[in-house]
Amino acid sequence: MSRDVYEYAVIRVVPKVERGEQINAGVLLYCQPRGYLCAKVELDPGRLRALDPGADVEGVRRALGAYELACGAEPGPLAGESLGGRFRWLTAPRSTIVQAGPVHAGLTADPGTELARLFDKLVRV
């Protein structure tokens, strides 16, 4: 089975941007040769509230969900973009509560399995 290059970024929540504290809340994975772009997110409200007791948990959940929606086929602001264009837009640096970390690369024979592996390793506690 052949392996292809993929790129990924951890989706993080930085409730108080000025403090720089963060929790990992998802993974965004793009594999151009396989035409694959997917985000998997999960918010741990307890960990979020440990960093910011007044955090808007539902607002953060909606922002995280936007990553999943942007990767899908549903109509939306990024629907007309190529998968690579969407990945670049989603991983562009921003100073907001929900943001993508640096982009990393690897090789995989199955992007979906790789996304699940990275998610378990980097997000789940």
Topology diagram in text:
Elements: E1 4-13, E2 23-31, E3 36-41, H1 45-51, H2 57-71, H3 83-91, E4 98-100, E5 104-108, H4 111-122
Please tell me about this protein's structure.
- The chain is α+β, with helices and mostly antiparallel strands and 125 residues long.
- The protein is 34% helix and 26% strand.
- The chain is built from 4 helices and 5 strands.
- It has helices spanning 45-51, 57-71, 83-91, 111-122, and strands spanning 4-13, 23-31, 36-41, 98-100, 104-108.
- Strands 1, 2, 3, 4 and 5 form a 5-stranded antiparallel β-sheet that branches.
State the gist of this model.
By secondary structure, the chain is of the alpha+beta class.
Task: List the keywords.
single chain; 125 residues; alpha+beta; five-stranded antiparallel sheet
Strand percentage, roughly? Answer: 25-35%
> Over the alpha carbons, how many angstroms does the gyration radius reach?
15 Å
Assign a percent range to the helix content. Answer: 25-40%
The string of secondary-structure elements, in order, is EEEHHHEEH
Largest sheet: 5 strands, antiparallel
